[in-house]
Amino acid sequence: MSGRSRPARVGFFACLAVLVALGVGYFNDCLAGLGLSVAALSQKEQATPKAEPAAEAKAEARVRIVVQGEQCRLGGARELRSCDDVCGEQIPGAIVELAATAGAQRVVEDLRTCLRRRGATVQVISE
């Protein structure tokens, strides 16, 4: 056998286990500060918002606005309204087709500027 007694070997392994545990705890705290610990990674996964299909559908919404003179109408609607009101109703991130064949140039430009400020992608159709 070895030259050490059994209690000495148990004490040595106990000290070694305590040092390893302290080292793991210390480095885990250091890694948590860097965002690399297991606990920090699991918190990041929980904190990361998952994209909702409804939010993606809103971002991909397509709207057609027809400008007639100084008034606007949405897609298939019959009534003409103020272009400012129509712009205010649009979803940020939507794709807006702007039919501007019968609209006043100033109104079309103002509407396009308003829609871009709201975050919409504007495609001007003037045939």
Which structural category fits the helices and strands?
alpha/beta
Residue runs with pLDDT of under 50 for 5 or more positions = 55-59
Q: For the report, how would you describe the main beta sheet? A: 5 strands, mixed
Helix content: 40-55%
| Fraction of residues in β-strands | 15-25%
Brief descriptors of the model:
5 strands; alpha/beta
Give an account of the 3D structure.
The protein has 127 residues and is of the alpha/beta class. The protein contains five helices and five strands. The chain has a five-stranded mixed sheet with strand order 3-2-1-4-5. Helix 5 links the parallel strand 4 (95-103) and strand 5.
Strand-helix topology:
Elements: H1 6-34, H2 38-47, H3 53-59, E1 62-69, E2 71-74, E3 81-82, H4 83-88, E4 95-103, H5 105-117, E5 121-125
Parallel strand pairs: 1-4, 4-5
Antiparallel strand pairs: 1-2, 2-3
Give a short summary of the structure:
51% of the residues lie in helices and 22% in strands.
